[in-house]
Design a protein that fits this description.
The chain is mostly beta strands. Helices cover about 0% and strands about 55% of the residues.
């Protein structure tokens, strides 16, 4: 057991029976009354931000969370199948645990967050940027824009559709930001 004196950003705790990480905290000592700690917590199961105030010295449960490297193998009606890159152990995850799954291709490396005590997967995260081939996009027409940052729809090799600048053509390799699902740059 720990107390609020042990708070630091990134600490994993159990709050109302849910795994959370501390995003922000502030210890407040008012002139009158007891001290307290204001916090912003991220629920690790759904990503929501919660605000809570703890009494100074209140006991908290610290949980053990581990990050492990996995490789995406394939998808079928059982879900997404992954292999641990060091132990070669395979697991299957349901669609709701994999964010931006349409930006993931076979062989893609991902990082999974596990609640170590229960061996339960909390999240499956793609790397910040992935390289994809543009399989289809309309050709740009000269004089088609009124501004310099015009975008058009493009389908990439996994079937996902993202917006790209007009100068991107079919067959080119681009870098996609998996957090915002946006075009980052052309790969040469």
């Amino acid at each position: 057991m720990a107390t609020t004196a042990d708070f630091k950003n990134g600490l994993y705790i159990s709050f109302n029976g849910k795994p959370c990480s501390i995003v922000w905290f502030q210890h407040v000592k008012p002139g009158k009354g007891a001290a307290f700690v204001k916090t912003k917590l991220r629920n690790l199961e759904n990503g929501r931000i919660l605000e809570n105030t703890f009494t100074a010295g209140e006991r908290i449960d610290i949980i053990n969370v581990q990050r492990r490297p996995y490789q995406f193998l394939y998808k079928d009606d059982m879900g997404f199948h992954f292999m641990h890159t060091e132990t070669f152990e395979q697991i299957a995850l349901q669609d709701d645990l994999v964010e931006n799954s349409d930006l993931m291709k076979e062989g893609q490396l991902v990082e999974m967050m596990f609640l170590a005590d229960e061996e339960r997967v909390l999240t499956c995260e793609l790397p910040p940027f992935v390289e994809m081939e543009v399989t289809y996009t309309e050709p740009a027409v000269k004089g088609d824009t009124a501004s310099s940052n015009a975008l058009k729809a493009a389908t990439i090799e996994t079937g996902a559709e993202i917006m790209v600048p007009l100068f991107i053509n079919q067959g080119e390799i681009i870098k996609v930001d998996t957090r915002t699902r946006t075009y980052a740059e052309r790969v040469r």
